[in-house]
Amino acid sequence: MRNLTRPLSITLMLLLSGPSFAQWIEYSNVDEGFFVNFPGEPTASEVEWISEYGANIPTNRYGVDGARGNYSMTVVDYRVILRGEEADRINSERVAHCPQGAETCLGGGASTGIGYSRVDVQGSMVYGAFQFLQRDAELTHFMWNFTDLVEGLQLQFTNPDLSRTFASLYLHDDRLYILEATTPEGVRGAELFQQSLAFLDETGTRIRYERYYHNSAPRPARTR
Fold first, then answer.
1. What is the distance between the alpha carbons of residues 163 and 166, in angstroms, rounded to a whole number?
2. The pLDDT value given to residue 108
3. Contacts with 9 (C-beta within 8 Å, 6 or more apart), sequence order
4. What angle do CA 152, 74, 133 make, to 5 degrees?
5. Are strands 25-29 and 198-200 parallel, antiparallel or unpaired?
6. At residue 89, what are phi and psi to the nearest 5 degrees?
7. What pTM was estimated for this model as a whole?
8. Which residues contact 218 (CB under 8 A, 6 or more apart)?
9. How far apart are alpha carbons 164 and 175 in whole angstroms?
10. CA distance 118 to 125
11. Which residue has better confidence, 165 or 13?
12. Contacts of 88 (CB under 8 A, 6+ apart)
């Protein structure tokens, strides 16, 4: 399904200009490579993320929690297990006790990587979605989606207290981006939060590709 960010941009601006959205801000984080609208200034914190194959991945959460709900962007930096000295250390620790000659130790060539590091990265969106599915909530929608041609997944839940949770996961440049908004019954804002996401390059310029971006495929050309 086509992402509706661009067609809804005028509607988004009008809604954000209303009294109930007066505190929303445009938040850019060039170091983490994203832009999103938050209902207030977000607080940054480090959180724990253990990957599907047991690696402790550096992870930062940017969140706003208040009466209108809880909004967060979590960035899981999987680059740490793919390159550099830190990657060698983490992957060596993961395979230290595996049976000699096992595929996990050998790395499976270009397909899996030592300690299943490549599988860990490419499967991270599905693994992240699986974490949401373990919650005590009713899944009401689950779909493939994209924003600025970067593919992702979206989930919607109704919680036991009738609050609503909207979650999105995108894998871009070996970083997993998890947007989550939970709002009380009848409170709007989660949809707008999801639709405001954009990816930024190292100069802070918004990235939009000419065709679908898949993390393991050659990077598509960017539009102007």
1. 10
2. 58
3. none
4. 60
5. unpaired
6. -65, -50
7. 0.86
8. none
9. 26
10. 13
11. 165
12. none
Contact 197, 174 (CB under 8 A): no
The residue type of 204 is: G
For the record, the structure tokens of 190 come out as: 């989660």
Contact 99, 105 (CB under 8 A): yes
d(CA 95, CA 76): 22
Mean pLDDT over the full length of the chain: 86
180-195: pLDDT as tens digits: 999 999 998 899 899 9
Which structure tokens are listed for 5?
Answer: 């960010």
| Residue 106: band (very low, low, confident or very high) from pLDDT cuts 50, 70, 90 | low
Both structure tokens of 49 = 């993320």
Residues contacting residue 73 through CB under 8 Å, at least 6 positions apart: 34, 36, 42, 61, 62, 63, 177, 178, 179
Nearest to 81 by CA among 26, 47, 118, 31: 118
Instruction: In whole angstroms, give the CA distance from residue 29 to residue 35.
Output: 6
Domains, in order of start, for the chain? 9-183 (3.40.1000)
Question: 133, 120 in Cβ contact below 8 A?
Answer: no
Phi first, then psi, for residue 194 (nearest 5°) are -60, -45
Kindly tell me if the per-residue pLDDT of 123 is higher than 70: yes
Tokens of 67: 């009466």
